Amino acid sequence: MHRRLIVPGAIAASLLLAIPASAADFVPGAPGIGDPYYPASGNGGYDVTHYDLRLKYQPSTDLLEGTATILATPTQNLSRFNLDLGLKALDVRVNGRKAAFKATGAQELEVTPAVPLPKDRPVSVVVRYSGKPSEVKIDGWTAWHRTPDGGVAAQQPESAVWWFPSNDHPLDKATFDVSVAVPDGTQAISNGVLQSQSSRLGWTRYNWRSDKPQATYLATLAVGRFDVTTDTTANGLPVVNAYSKDLGANAGAARASIERTVEVAEWLEEIFGPYPFNALGGYVPNVRSGYALETQTRPFYSPRQFANGSNVSVVVHELAHQWYGDSVSVKGWKDIWINEGFARYSQWLWSEREGEGTAQELADWVYASRPAGDPFWTVKPGDPGPENQFHLAVYDRGALALQALRNELGDEDFFRLLKGWPTERAHGNADVADFVSYAERESGKELDALFDTWLYQPSKPATAPVPAAERSGASASARTAAPAPAAPPKSWAKIAATNTVHDHSDHGDHSDHGHGHD
Questions:
Q1: SS3 for 145-211, per residue?
Q2: Interhelix angle 261-272/312-323, nearest 10 degrees
Q3: Mind listing the pLDDT tens digit for each residue in 291-343?
Q4: Secondary structure of residue 208 in the 3-state scheme
Q5: Which helix (H) or strand (E) is 244 found in, with range?
Q6: Predicted local confidence at residue 390, as pLDDT
Q7: Per CATH, which fold does 329-500 belong to?
Q8: How far apart are CA 209 and CA 165, in angstroms?
Q9: How far apart are CA 418 and CA 421, in angstroms?
């Protein structure tokens, strides 16, 4: 009988052999989701399905305390993963077990679970955290507005990191439950439907729910003292509008605009199809900013949007985004035209409805009022670059592209496209190439040259968008040679007043510039 001698090294080797070969496949998720404009945004390796946020906020100190429960599914075998968070994490658990974690970079929370996470097996992540959002600066800027009676999270392209941990990129949308405790006499406004409200020991808790996929930057939180109006649409959707109690001279104009939200939404349904979410509304906190934002179901409006009186055009813009930008979201931030070009064009269509200038007249004015040497024409709406992501050209030249498409296809096919796109892509993501392919498929026409001219060439197109009836050489040449219109359409002043609608920097001259990390 021969006894085999097993030395310690051999024992170790045999144990290694017993571990499945697939264990070697567990690797860290990427610290970014892969967006070339914002490499640090989002994270790789998993997909979030739901956020449950339980928060407590004290307006007098700006202290936010939170527990976020994140339901996700790994898209690879994960040894480690990142969340985006600017506040201080206090404790992290993955599938109920304590996990190691550390803050890295400007906004990364690096989490190492006790046990690696297999691909496609759902996980829960619980993060306890706290901090003062107004003290968090990332790349020199902030998405958190401190107000006299509270605080507001509303910003683009990022705002989540100031108030909850997330996979902070539109490519990873999820449903939300947001529960916020604030001192009695103060309200907490968020997205979706107010499920319940209760008070105890000097605090009132508001529970909000968004039951359709929502990008993280479209999640909003506003704490303060508001006058709140409520209603129900003809289709039974709850409507919640909220106005800061200290809007001063802008209060009446703000209400006169936002109280038309249901009317505007019903009109947009005629153009874009059924409203895609479970609630409607808008809110105006007492902030010093000048922009507005399409926060899902409940757009954010700065009081300055109404400094010159009521402006329903800005309401049209933000509500149009509920279809174009919120339900159908960008795959990457370079695809911003499929949000902003359509939202701006909806303002042109509202002008037609109100008898204040047709979309063609507005297109003619935009084209004629910008000479060929204007830097406006060097911005490519189809891929403007991060420095020009919210440049006015993305809006106005982006709308010109749609007028050119309308002229090419005719009204019947064009409006069929506008309604079909948010239906086909509901609650998903898309890029500019997806829309071009869709338009070609549905129209049966080759449209590459049209979109290249209006979205990608860094120069002024040779002619304005020409209606089909004037498409002959002589008519087109006469239109091009004609002097610029003596005056803009009547709606132009109201539309131009929204040119800073997504100018989030609030620094310097905003005539042609959008958000920048400055």
A1: EEECCEEEECCCCCCHHHCCCECCCCCCCEEEEEEEEEECCCEEECCCEEEEEEEECCEEEEEEEEE
A2: 50
A3: 999 999 999 999 999 999 999 999 999 999 999 999 999 999 999 999 999 99
A4: strand
A5: strand 238-244
A6: 94
A7: Neutral Protease; domain 2 (1.10.390)
A8: 18
A9: 6
